[in-house]
Amino acid sequence: MSLQDQRLMQVLLAPTISEKSTYVGEKHNQVVFRVIQDATKPEIKAAVELLFKVKVKGVQVSNVKGKEKRFGKFMGRRRNWKKAYVSLMPGQEINFQAAE
What we know:
Blueprint: H1 3-11, E1 12-15, H2 19-28, E2 30-35, H3 41-52, E3 56-64, E4 68-71, E5 74-77, E6 81-88, H4 96-99
Antiparallel strand pairs: 1-2, 2-6, 3-6, 4-5
């Protein structure tokens, strides 16, 4: 396994399962992933194609600010993270049960 393949295996952290991501998936044939902070669009595309054996049409990236949370009298902050909306080619789909 090359160094580049090892990097691609670490780019995707987890699929994002929410009401919005389910809606986007059904309507626009997209899948939403949580990705590492310094991931680029070409890396995300290559990682999805490598891991799930599908063709990717495009990638949109969104930086999510961490929420401020209160812990007793102290204010804390969650980490910032990056979200990727991956558009799949028509007829392609990712089945997460089979991928595990």
